[in-house]
Amino acid sequence: MAGEPTASDTPWLDKDAEPLIRIKGITKKFGEFIAVNNVDLDIYQGELFCLLGGSGCGKTTLLRMLAGFETPSSGTIVIDGADMSQVPPYERPTNMMFQSYALFPHMSVEKNVAFGLKQDKVPNDEIADRVDDILKLVELQDFKARKPQQLSGGQRQRVALARALVKKPKVLLLDEPLAALDKKLREHTQFELANIQEQVGITFVVVTHDQEEAMTLSSRIAVMDKGEFVQIGTPTEIYEFPETRFVADFIGSANIFEGEIVEDGADHVRVSTSLGEIYIDHGQSTKMGSRVWAAIRPEKIHLSKKAPTKSGPNQAAGKVDDIGYLGNSSIYKIRLDTGQIVDVTSPNQIRPKSRTHGITWEDTVYLNWEPSSAMLLNK
Amino acid sequence: MYGKRSRFLTIMLVVGMAFFYVPMILLVIYSFNYSRIVPVWGGWSTRWYGVLFESEEVWSAVGLSLEIAVLNATFATLLGTLAGLAMVRFGRFKGRTLFGGMLVAPLVMPEVITGLSLLVMFITLKQLVGWPAERGFTTITIAHITFSLAYVAVIIQARLTGMGQTLEEAALDLGAKPFRVLTAITIPRLAPGMVAGWLLAFTLSLDDLVIASFVTGPGANTLPILIFSRIRLGLRPDINALATIIILFVAVCVAIAALIMFQQQRRAMRDEQIANREVA
């Protein structure tokens, strides 16, 4: 769907590729509560895979099952060809970076990083070399003697990453790796994390609730809800081709309108909704008269004070109900005649000449969007 | 308005402090009384300290009490830590509720009941297996461990719960086997709790009169038993001197503890400063 895939970049499209992690029919129950419900997932070597979902969706439980801290109620996890069900955490080819970092407070940075290698009885001089190398990678070579309490949040995060990476695991599991950092540092670290992953070539599985983080980091994202995968795909697929209303609404924001198919052509679809008629310029596998939802992203709607010259599909009119000025862009809440509110975001590309906006409260505005913009959802 | 309130607070402070400290100050003053009869002032003197230092009975009681206290604190800390670990880290095992209940029973049980039941047990044991042949050092130590370990277990449980399990999981994840996790992560992290538990068990043992009275035998007098038996025959100036020495000892210990805490606080503050310096 997105660009021309090559086999090495998109192993999930290659039917013969052997996955590094194969999750089959995994269910985890805590008493009566089903945290993870019969999920299947293949993750391939070199991927940066994100498990994305709100709190309580089961993403962390799934990660902890990969690490071996939770035992699945049923199903199997195979990592690099070996069944993990009887393997304790300390013998798994995985390492984990904890949300709280879990650095040992009574050990120096160096001892923290060396801890894993010591358990494997690696010779002392090799430990020293590997610790040096990994601390160089995360740019902490000057902080070896510090205790974790003497480090800033960002430095602690890098120690945690180094400690988990130094053992060269087959899979690195990251539980909300950036959640504890402030916004500026988080944005910077996102790219750094992706760079490091590329350098070391280790498969990353990241749990996050932050959709922006998932979008920037991942090769693929699995969106989770109530213990199940709702959709698995690349960031572009998830954003531009959501399969359900949940995904469309959870990733970014979307204006969703219920409607009915009134024309179903090979290369186009017409949907009648409360927003008026929506024309979509590509075919969809739907039936005439079936109930569907059309979703339009706020940034894909054009806003104009000028009335359209001709009537037709993909346009609407309303009054400005509210404006959220974000600096680089503005969010407009447009109230339609039907009383519905439509969100529109538009970049502030032109600096206003005066201190008042071009479009202001209670202005009558006209909306229109491209025939390709609306997304048709069956559930 | 503000001045009035402040005066009220000052008065309450003085009254409160007096409530705590006047008895002790009186005790200290009377320990320097020359007179043999405590309430009669006979001028300043260190006479009773001399008498005290020559009394073999007092020194043997001090020795016995310290020996029991150290042994008790050590075993209670060991067993209490294991019990705490079992309660918090071993999930649900069979009999956990019963175990937890029995563990805290000495905390809620009246001391006389604990003392009595232990005495009954020792007597029964002697009849059945001939051990302990004589009541005294051994029986008091066992009795003290029984109730002190409950306190230690409570401290350890609280600390374990507060610590969470993440660090242990991290160690497991890095390849440490469970026993290694215990020695490399859990025990060092528990150390402050264990020290606190040890000190508490030590104090409890040193302090105990009731349970020791039940399970002691002829000739084995701990310090509280000695003091109490002497006081029963009337106030005695040499006991005042002994009490003054104990107060001094405790005060020094508390001062040292406060100093250590102050230094830890300073270190934490310094760490934070170091951490913040590089952020910019």
Summarize this, please?
With 379 residues, chain A is of the alpha+beta class.
Description:
The complex is a heterodimer of chains A (379) and B (280). In chain A, helix 2 packs across helix 3 (124-137) and helix 3 (124-137) crosses helix 4 (153-165). Chain A has 2 domains: 16-246, Rossmann fold (3-Layer(aba) Sandwich); 255-377, Nucleic acid-binding proteins (OB fold (Dihydrolipoamide Acetyltransferase, E2P), Beta Barrel), CATH 2.40.50.140. Helices cover 22% and strands 33% of the residues of chain A. Chain A is globular, with a radius of gyration of 25 Å. In chain A, the strands form 4 sheets. A 6-stranded mixed β-sheet of chain A has the order 6-7-8-3-9-10, sandwiched between helices. Chain A has a 5-stranded antiparallel β-sheet with strand order 13-12-11-14-20. Chain A has a 5-stranded antiparallel β-sheet with strand order 15-19-16-17-18, with no helix packed on it. Chain A contains 8 helices and 20 strands. Chain A is α+β, with helices and mostly antiparallel strands and 379 residues long. Chain B is mainly alpha-helical and 280 residues long. Chain B has a domain at 59-236: MetI-like fold, CATH 1.10.3720.10. Helices cover 80% and strands 0% of the residues of chain B. Chain B has 11 helices and no strands. Chain B has helices spanning 2-31, 47-54, 56-89, 96-108, 111-129, 137-163, 166-173, 178-207, 210-215, 223-231, 237-277. The longest helix of chain B has 41 residues, at 237-277. At the A-B interface, strand 6, helix 2 and helix 4 of A face helix 7, helix 8 and helix 11 of B.
